[in-house]
């Protein structure tokens, strides 16, 4: 029988199979896993993989959103709809709540990227999660290029890049002591283009801001930021209407849009295939601070 | 860099599905490995302008005379400060034919540990040598490790051909010497390519500077090297990862065994045996979330249902009654030790992870430590330190369902974990079980 083309699978099928394997390993070996779900495309793809990994049973873990309070309404709406459809338990780790309790303090520039880390770690401790699925990919950023699929965190939630466990074959070491945890990255080997191809193939709906739309923006440091209640134009910055879409979805105060006419998934794939700027480089004010911005945040426990 | 590029990955993947090639690169900084990787990424349009701009800016600030492409892969602060590569970095690029995952392993410090890690999942390994220096001790070590880890395809890139005047004689001497060495190692497939990573010769297109070379360019080889036959489609091995039993009112009496096919082909109707119990049954269905599939083969993640209700749990293995792995507690294995703090010692007790199975093991004996430069066996060795390789005898608390590593990289490989620190301290390749 010659059936599936001489027993070969496409690269997307191979990536999917690997991610499903990783998710099943976690559920089989860890006590209390949780999936970090932001409503961004990578976490949406992760959720689809989780559905596939455990079908016909339900996804056997809750999802958690670290909510900075600076949200795109389209994304929050999507999050709630998706959670309801899948009958998931949603845990919201809220930065505004932590601010009002005095757990964290607003940083001088108003960006909440850094202060979401203690909020995340607090929720991990409270719920005693020992495995956190994150949607990070190794192609995103060079500190991430060296991170393991199963990435150990000490009792302070810290990553020690120089002291990582060797990871061989598909043998993932999730052993840890109480209070320690493992961040798990099932999409480690996916690229931005793979994610989009998968979204197209699986016909996965996304928040509308991923597709081209008209938005009022200002230009700052060469990036286009939407003007909204979290992001005000400074003196001399003239808001204007532009046709844009978001390549990443993060905190609304530090995530920029890109000019785009791509209003369908096919057009987005064409655009991503042709683009010459990384998605974080094009859209994230928070990565621009220094060469090692991501590594420093990850050491502190950022996802 | 030159502007000769190939088209980026096609937007429409469904037009012609790409397959996936994982390869590991080995060589020291001086061999031009970073330049080669930079060149592959650049020429396949996988290098982004903001990444390049960041590297250029840092290079200029450090006073480098040229854009130091090593900075692309040196992602950690300590690496950039010290100018060394610490860890395996993964890189991605694609051409219309294939998607590539590079495990870029550093050449100098702790190189054995990193190289073994990178090679463990590689379909192909790429070893670089400097044409001016020829084979060095490290090239032989890299080749040995690739053969130990059973990487099916090996490519030797003789780099910096521009600095030896594109000399055919220099190239052939290195190629011959390496081929002779590889013959001793049981390397199934070897290709040797003369290149200049800096100038782009024989990387994407055939070099005009070396008309005497009649082989393919490096990328041409990477795109076409035949990997489909590397998979073992003969021995059915399905380690059970997780039992799916929906607690639901709509799906009742469902019991499926989830896992990734390690080798062989599974299909409905096949008679199977479950280890370690030895019970036999038939496959009722092979399922995925998208519906049943006719056949499952590596690397598919599927759910297998059997016609009989038998007690199966994680760590069990589904195979064929007439083709089963060895069920054994006494294991002979080659070990690569990876822990800097404590050596492997005879009498030492460790946790081990083999397929989806966990066990404890005691080191019953160390037969020898292998000098990986001379391949000499030191039978007087009493321990294995960081980066040392030796042959040991283990006794496990529960039986492993084991194949020889040379026959099956999944059911033949295991990791050793220190039970006190939980760190992964060793990699094992089964030589003999039983």
Automatic annotation (TrEMBL), chain A:
A GO molecular-function descriptor: sulfate adenylyltransferase (ATP) activity
Protein family per UniProt: Belongs to the PAPS reductase family. CysD subfamily.
All copies of domain Phosphoadenosine phosphosulphate reductase, residue ranges: 33-256
Keywords linked to the UniProt accession: ATP-binding, Nucleotide-binding, Nucleotidyltransferase, Transferase
SUPFAM superfamilies in the record: Adenine nucleotide alpha hydrolases-like
Top EC group: transferase
Biological-process GO terms, alphabetical: sulfate assimilation
Enzyme Commission code: 2.7.7.4
UniProt cross-references to Gene3D superfamilies, sorted A to Z: HUPs (3.40.50.620)
Annotated PANTHER family: SULFATE ADENYLYLTRANSFERASE SUBUNIT 2
InterPro entries per record: PAPS_reduct_dom, Rossmann-like_a/b/a_fold, SO4_adenylTrfase_ssu, Sulfate_adenylyltrnsfr_sub2
Presence of the UniProt keyword ATP-binding in the record: yes
Protein name: Sulfate adenylyltransferase subunit 2
Stretch list, region Disordered: 283-303
TrEMBL record, chain B:
InterPro entries: CysN_GTP-bd (IPR041757), CysN_II (IPR044138), CysN_NoDQ_III (IPR044139), G_TR_CS (IPR031157), GTP-eEF1A_C (IPR054696), P-loop_NTPase (IPR027417), SO4_adenylTrfase_lsu (IPR011779), T_Tr_GTP-bd_dom (IPR000795)
Pathway this chain belongs to: Sulfur metabolism; hydrogen sulfide biosynthesis; sulfite from sulfate: step 1/3
Entry keyword annotation includes Transport: no
CDD domains found in the cross-reference section: CysN_ATPS, CysN_NodQ_II, CysN_NoDQ_III
Reaction catalysed by this enzyme: sulfate + ATP + H(+) = adenosine 5'-phosphosulfate + diphosphate
Domain of life: Bacteria
PROSITE patterns reported for this sequence: G_TR_1, G_TR_2
Enzyme Commission number(s) of this protein: 2.7.7.4
Ranges of residues in domain Tr-type G: 18-231
An example Gene Ontology molecular-function term: GTPase activity
Record flagged with keyword GTP-binding: yes
One GO-annotated biological process of the protein: hydrogen sulfide biosynthetic process
Database matches in Pfam families: GTP-eEF1A_C, GTP_EFTU
Keywords: ATP-binding, GTP-binding, Nucleotide-binding, Nucleotidyltransferase, Transferase
Broad EC category: transferase
Residues annotated to bind GTP: 27-34, 104-108, 159-162
Binding partners and assembly: Heterodimer composed of CysD, the smaller subunit, and CysN.
Family in the record: Belongs to the TRAFAC class translation factor GTPase superfamily. Classic translation factor GTPase family. CysN/NodQ subfamily.
Function: With CysD forms the ATP sulfurylase (ATPS) that catalyzes the adenylation of sulfate producing adenosine 5'-phosphosulfate (APS) and diphosphate, the first enzymatic step in sulfur assimilation pathway. APS synthesis involves the formation of a high-energy phosphoric-sulfuric acid anhydride bond driven by GTP hydrolysis by CysN coupled to ATP hydrolysis by CysD.
Entry protein name: Sulfate adenylyltransferase subunit 1
Gene for this chain: cysN
